[in-house]
Amino acid sequence: MGKQPSLYSFGNTDTLAKSLRSYVLQCQSAGFERHGAFKVAVSGGSLPKTLAKALLEPSNGSPEDTVDFAKWEVFFADERAVPLDHEDSNYKLLKDELLDKIPREMSQPTVHPIDVKYLDDVQEMADQYQEELMRSFAAKDSVKLPLFDLLLLGCGPDGHTCSLFPNHELLRESDAWVAPIEDSPKPPAKRITLTLPVVTHGVKIAFIATGEGKKDILKQILDTDEGRSLPCGIVNEGGAERVSWFTDSSAVEGVGFPRRGSL
Length: 263
Known about the structure:
The chain is of the alpha/beta class. Helices cover 30% and strands 16% of the residues. It is built from 7 helices and 10 strands. The strands form 2 sheets. Strands 1-10-9-6-2-3-5 form a 7-stranded parallel beta sheet, with helices on both faces. It has a 3-stranded antiparallel beta sheet with strand order 4-8-7. α1 (13-35) crosses α2. The radius of gyration is 17 Å and the shape is globular. It starts with 5 loop residues before the first strand and ends in a 15-residue tail after the last strand.
């Protein structure tokens, strides 16, 4: 059997957030060493709130425990084709939960939202967002895929992640970095998303899944052969030991997949 993802489980979201902070800061250090920046993709859902809990805690003063937002570049793992102030916008969610709460003395990350000029043409929106990635990660013809230092992802109750849904044709997309979706089974229907090759190429990939509403799908993803064909399962297979799951105990109740004690 090949190398497997790491599953971490915590008694509550406060202890999860502490561990997530350590993990993200380890990834930050590695990014700074590699190229003097930290390039992150984030998704929506409950993730931004947990991320804020992890990152906005006061530092203990050591370089290893210091969030240096000035060198962060934040992209969206997926986004809905809505204005940036719309309640369905992942940008608005991240802004409300994290960006607006960053203390002034910490400085702000560079954030890459969608171009709202293209709300009525999601193919063009996806193309424009791919060009945004190219500007940051080098021209597409010189790198096959963008290499994110970290992707922070959620897991839907159907096993979807980003806007990659079970049995959807987008799971077979192998060329584009960013793809449009006009028939999302979860509203709003029109979105853009990073594609599977980009997601599974990341240096590190972290899923954050909490609450008892996740236990059935996590059992399926982590314990069954069928679960491997779900989008989260495909990321597990492609990312292998580069994937970590941060969960609370209620989300993994009944899950047989072995947990790790600590980072």
